[in-house]
Design goal:
The chain is mainly β. The chain is 13% helix and 39% strand. The protein contains 2 helices and 9 strands, in the order βββββαβββαβ. The longest helix is centred in the first third of the chain and has 13 residues.
Length: 156
């Protein structure tokens, strides 16, 4: 039986930098927004707060929903077996840190998490930031321009 996973992400911008989780794979580093799976009986905003505490070690204040993104692995990973396919619905919320620490100390980091990194938003495309399709929208938010809110589709 296949399931759709509900997930949350935190879009945290401070001083023209985006807060990201650094992950290391066999080949390279990649950067993603902090977040993870929603648990049973947990609201989406509570999931953001919990995931940020686990991955960043800090309290966050969750604001409004910015985007809903899907990731349907069969559309993006050609060599994936049918048993390993994933379908994730990701809810991306604007969030703010209650306090900015000198050093982040994750409580329960993901197994592939190697760090917490502030990336300069104007140079975000120079990094292996995932998903790439969000970069122009994040850059628009950073400079105060109008951006599309809502469903952004099945993007990788």
């Amino acid at each position: 039986m296949y399931k759709i996973r509900s997930s949350v992400k935190a879009l945290i911008i401070h001083d023209h930098h985006l807060l990201t989780i650094e992950k290391k794979s066999e080949r390279n580093k990649k950067y993603i927004l902090p977040g993870g799976g929603q648990e049973f009986n947990e609201t989406l905003s509570d999931a953001v707060v919990r995931e940020c505490m686990e991955e960043l070690g800090v309290k966050t204040q969750v604001e409004g929903l910015v985007w809903v993104r899907e990731f349907i692995s069969k559309n993006h990973i050609s060599d994936q077996s049918k048993d390993n396919q994933a379908h994730i619905v990701e809810h991306i919320f604007e969030a703010f840190l209650m306090e900015i620490p000198e050093k982040f100390e994750p409580i329960v980091p993901d197994s592939t998490q190697t760090g917490v990194v502030w990336l300069p938003i104007d140079r975000l495309s120079e990094y292996n930031f995932y998903p790439q399709e969000l970069i122009p929208m994040i850059q628009a938010i950073n400079i105060g321009k109008y951006f599309h809110k809502g469903y952004v589709g099945d993007i990788n």
